[in-house]
Amino acid sequence: MNKVDSASSGLAISGWAVTSPYGIGRSVFSEGLAAGRGTERAIEQGQGPAGTACLVPDFDSRAVLGKKGTRMMNRVTGMAVSTIGDLLRELGSDRLDPDTTGLVVGTTVGSAQSTIDFTRGSLTGERPFHVEPGLIPYAVMNGAAGQCAIWHGVKGPNATLAAGRSAGLLALNYARRLLLTRRAGTVLCGAAEEYSVARAWISEHSAGTDAPGAVLGEGCAMFALTADPTDEPPLATLLAVKATTCSDGDWYTTVRRCVEQATAAAGVRPSDVWMASPSGAAGPAGHAERAALGDLFDLGDRLVCVTELIGETHAASGALQLAAVLSLAEQNPESAELPAVVTSIDESGTVVACLVRLG
Amino acid sequence: MAVVTPDEKQLIKGIVCDILELEGDEIADDSLFVEDHDADSMRLIEILSSLELNLRVTIEQSELPRMVNLRGVYEVIGNITR
Q1: Span B6-78 CATH architecture
Q2: B5 CA to chain A: closest CA distance, Å?
């Protein structure tokens, strides 16, 4: 049995890529964030029960990836394949060994739309087996991770992690364990979430009375995490990921304890923390999370909540928060060598804190 | 005797082209789905299933080995009692 030392010196984040409601790529993401520009727009009739959403503008899998192999590809897979492609280009994919490169994608249910479309086909068709078989690979939750590996020829461990809003940070933790146990040399990891009529419907009907329907967003952020030596200094170093469960509804105490565990494990002084990003979940739980971070760290306007700008991105939120922190750090050289904290909470009770040292 | 009307042929060709992501002029009656058009087993099942849905027929899976090109598909469809 391999033992994972959670207090080891950290793993290098050697690259990242993002597809967001600001558009495709890091530069539009950085510009939008720096300007604090919101992305909420009216959606077309029939696109969902709510009137507005934060969509990746003009994103179409076939337009972005070409017509070959994309006929049945759903939006979440298209975003993941495209974002991983951007990441590989940034890394210089010839420098990666496909056999030792892993892939970990965080999600909630994959594509709620594809799953429901498939089920609807079976229920409304002349025969229950008169379904569209092309939907099957995308109607299962690991469709995106599988397709990313097939498309880009990544042959290492391939994992899909379903954990709601915490999925992005838990994917990083899964990647971290793969690396520390030497199952992979580099892991491409992150999370993706699509906007769809089905997701909007589920979101509206499952929202509690204390947290009415948030404006939905979508997107994908992917990071390259490596245990191998890097030629250039890393953009950031992943120091610790701690996950715990809130079972008594006391989100403030649980978030606080989780973050304190992460900082203690990494030997980080709270006063050194340069930036923190809460999940921005709606309702009292989200307020408690934000309050805990505000009380732990003296940050002023460096307590950054991207949900206000790019919407509730559910499974992709943790990954997009980390992308936002890296992006803002890039624009602020004084952040170099300082730690930053990203937290996530999910209705299911999961609380995750992720600690990085900025490049 | 196999009977497939020109309209049905057109419909079948359209379905096959859509699934194999080909333009109409890229496929011939005797060009092979797998060898010439990079189809995999998933695509072949998609073709079978889509034909069933659109032509309202049931195709036995045992017919798959004959459905290697458009000519084979026309024969299989033509032989189904409708």
Answers
A1: Orthogonal Bundle (1.10)
A2: 24
